[in-house]
Amino acid sequence: MDVNRASARELLRVPGFGQQSVQRILQVRRWRRLRLTDLASLNVSIKRVLPFVVTADHTPHLLRLDAVDLRDRIAPRREQLDLFTA
Fold it and tell me: What is the CA radius of gyration of the chain?
């Protein structure tokens, strides 16, 4: 979720954001785009919110569900074991 564009209701759904954090985020983003360091200075647990947020300096590589190599990235192929060979 983009911290610089999401509504207050959407931000409250992110683990690690509470009412006070969301109000501070809304105030700060009136003046500039938020970065990870800004979230840290607002006493937000970066470790908790990192997988769920997009900031000006953090864009996680989202898992594309229509990618051709999706199966190989999620579960690498393994050789099927034969039950009856000795």
Answer: 20
